[in-house]
Amino acid sequence: MSLDQFINEAISPWMKKNCKEEDDIVLSTRIRLARNLENFPFPIAASDHSASTLLHYVSKVLSEPYDESIGKLELIQMNDLSPNEKRVLVEKHLISPHLAEESNYGAVMLSQDESISIMINEEDHIRLQCLFCGFQLNEGFVLSNGLDDWIEGKVTYAFDEKRGYLTSCPTNVGTGLRASVMMHLPALVLTKQLNSIIPAINQIGLVVRGIYGEGSEALGNIFQISNQMTLGKSEQDIIEDLRGVVIQLIQQERSARQSLLSHSRIQLEDKIFRSYGLLANSRIMESKEAANRLSDVRLGIDLDLIHGISGNILNELMILTQPGFLQQYAKKALTPAERDIERAKLIRDRLHLEKENK
Predict the structure, then answer these.
(1) What is the pTM of this model?
(2) Which family does the record assign (predicted)?
(3) Binding site for ATP: which residues?
């Protein structure tokens, strides 16, 4: 896949797979491993020469394919990208905001289907992430663990017998594992149950964040649930703890949806179809409103209230309508007001195309 395709195609191939694992509520699963190499200064203390040397070394080591099904990883260096191109990769969750900002000798290696992203010279020397559609924690862990073993067979990690894998941030020391799922929880938000659930989740070492992780806003009722602890627990324990909480959240979201249908059906339908009408006809649409309206429509699709529209529309338009992609398609910088106009047009065109195809 060329650089242009990584940048210009909103939907990563892994997102297009026919995934039925609770995908009406769990949009995606991510496993991320933080690793550093022995005998290299950590990125926070590395000189330009050291960072450049590490980039050349790691990219060369990973230039051979992991296996035939994944193929060769393509190297993209941050210094070769415009600010907006980096923004697009952040919007697709292929790189972190940190890597986009700290671009000197930073890079990412991507698989053809974009399900594997290996960031180099981010907060740590290597940030390996695997992305799956729906609720696939085990599949994600198996793949990331295999890739980790493959890399460890070629390099020497910074590792301590008592502390585990050593990382730049103390919160990642130990397993270096962050497992997360992206969940669409509109009914728990509408019924105001989520505010009481989040503290209970935090008490067991998990955290609820926005769509782009730490410090980000939960746009469109989409929340990222992940582990907060990496030290003192095994990788499998972390995965199982997260799995248990996600299963409970799925059950509670389903129960809240049924309660809304049973006790507030007309109000719910009115909210959903008002949002559909605004998305289909508006000429100006701000980013936050677009996310919330798309969430309503996705809920309507999942509850079988809206027909003839793909359930993937939330995943797709949540990315397509972000500032980076809007400017990428316009092939020019846009003011916030111009982006709001372009966003509304893109959504209208996409809904019209959906109706034509059906």
Answers:
(1) 0.90
(2) Belongs to the ATP:guanido phosphotransferase family.
(3) 28-32, 93, 127, 178-182, 209-214
